[in-house]
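FAQ: What does a multi-protein file look like?

Like this. Sequence, then tokens, then the next protein.
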Amino acid sequence: MKPLYLQGSGTAVKLDGPALRVTRSGAAERWFPLQRISHVVSAVHIDWTIDALLACAENRITVSFIDDEGAVLARVAGKPGERSELRQRFLDFLLRPDWRDLYLQWIGAMERMAVRSVIRRTGLAFDRPPSAKALRRLFREGARAMGQLTVYDRIGGEVFGLLTTLVTRHLADVGITTESERMGELDPVTGLSSIVFWDFQLARLAWLEDRLRDDRLDIPDRLEIVGFFEARRERTERLIRGLLGRLHGWLLEIG
């Protein structure tokens, strides 16, 4: 199964039997079997029919709509997977009066772990390990020194939007979808995505350096950014699964 990325003016998506039929002005029609699609990332201007969206949901395919900056504006969540022990543990956890404080502690611990991993890979020696905030500032200063801060931020925004789509799918696979809405701004899609996003920090700077060597100073288009993301998708999915495993273990530990 592979993700489907849709963009381009004049593009429309309709249901055609067991497949999505994608048409675009001046281009040949294309068919994408639903059973081969893991999730869909669609530009907001794409014209979808209701039956095509419902077919995606029924086939456990989450459709995310992103704006021109790469931010996710809306999602149609796919049908949840089989009820898992992780899902039940998670729902039981949300019934605790102290769930918010405990969850923030766990997210903080996972972010510190991710930051330590990034620091090790930089090969830099620090008298005192920087905080997450300080490390983010250090990376942005590196991009600024290259005259590429705007490009760095744009790539980050687009990548984060793609990452939230992938995390949404993995949560749906274990049966966690709309149940997390009660968490508000602490929803697990944002929390888990923010942790995994650390794995893209060094890769973003390395890509900027490669582009500078080729005298490419412009902001990469969405297809380039999707290619950058897809090149790391296998590793990213391993990290997401590992993080869900840690979440499960922690929920078991706290009872």
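And here is the next protein:
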Amino acid sequence: MTNAGPGRPRLTKQRRPGPTAQAEILDAAAELFTTKGFASTSTRQIAEMVGMRQASLYHHFATKDDILAALLEQTVTAPLELANRLAATTEPAAVRLYALLLFDSGQLMAGRWNLGALYLLPELRTERFSRFREERQQLRRRYRELAAAVLTELGTDDESRAGLPFRIVETVINERSDAEGGGTGTGEQSPVLLAEAGLRVLGWHDAESLRAQAERLLAATRSA
């Protein structure tokens, strides 16, 4: 038996990646939720994958819903914080939108498990997940505000396309699901391609020219 740090001792040596027992639990749960399904996964199965007692898992998370909420919030908290910081800068809206698309699509692609595939779970309609739903809606609004500002920079008041960049970045979720399931997903998406697509769909035809400026802004904003 080994000690997992704060909390209770585990039954085995560390089995999952992560600096803490809580991170290991989240990694194991993410794998099970995205491969077996949320309803089909028990906290006992999660604990077994981590190598700890079920009672020890409850030291970190009181319920399975709490684990799911923590995983979902990981997908929106960082991009929402970035979007709020970008809103306070004076860079052109097109550069800010490119930076947000670049970061958000990158984190959705880089995640060890395709957590966005959990967005359609019926359980997410309950009050327990209201914080996640609100944060995701706030992120959607930030995208729409930036897209509307880009359209203004282009000299058009047609906002019918303002919701498209957010939808484009979330194509990462379906692409990953298709690729991992042996379907039609090509796995050829990249954050740069999606960032440029998010600008082009608004009518910004020279989107690639924004990349260097957006990368500098992203680096400066994240280090601030």
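Q: Is there any per-entry metadata?
A: Some entries carry free-text notes. For the entry above: Confidence is low (pLDDT under 50) at residues 1-6.
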